[in-house]
Automatic annotation (TrEMBL):
Pfam families: p450 (PF00067). Belongs to the cytochrome P450 family. Keywords: Iron, Metal-binding. PANTHER family: ALLENE OXIDE SYNTHASE 2, CYTOCHROME P450 26. One of its GO terms (molecular function) is iron ion binding. This is Allene oxide synthase.
Length: 140
């Protein structure tokens, strides 16, 4: 479960989100606050939040057990589904209704992969704004 969340933290499936503010709001970061007026266009780049080094230790690194035990509290800082991972989707918050299905499918794929193969070798590289992983060998 933690591995699926870590993948979604590092590479959100929808990294760019935008919308018009429905009311005047103040968005706060660790060291600043921004007033957004009703009707203004707001754009968000998810990796800015999900790779925040003030929240996540070794924020740029893949840490498989990051969300195990007390680490589950970090899920409130994972915003890949148009809302906090710790919130439930409702009609009012417009959070992705398929969010839980995405996590389930990611977990099933991981389980199937590790049940099918004993060893594997991969090569990872930075690719445009994300990463590229190439399987070099798979052993049943």
């Amino acid at each position: 479960k933690s591995v699926a969340y870590e993948v979604l933290r590092i590479e959100p499936p929808v990294p760019f989100q935008y919308g018009n503010a429905k009311e005047d709001i103040v968005v706060e970061s660790h060291d600043a606050s921004f007033k957004i007026k009703k009707g203004e266009m707001v754009f968000g780049f998810q990796p800015f939040a999900t790779r925040d080094p003030k929240v996540f230790d070794k924020a740029e690194d893949f840490v498989a057990d990051r969300f195990v035990g007390l680490g589950e509290k970090l899920l409130k800082y994972v915003f890949w589904s148009n809302g906090r991972e710790s919130d439930k989707p409702t009609a009012d918050n417009k959070q992705c209704p398929g969010r839980d299905l995405v996590v389930l499918v990611a977990r099933v794929v991981l389980v199937e992969f590790f049940l099918r193969y004993d060893t594997f070798e991969v090569e990872d590289k930075l690719f445009l704004v994300g990463s590229k992983v190439t399987f070099k060998s798979l052993t049943k």
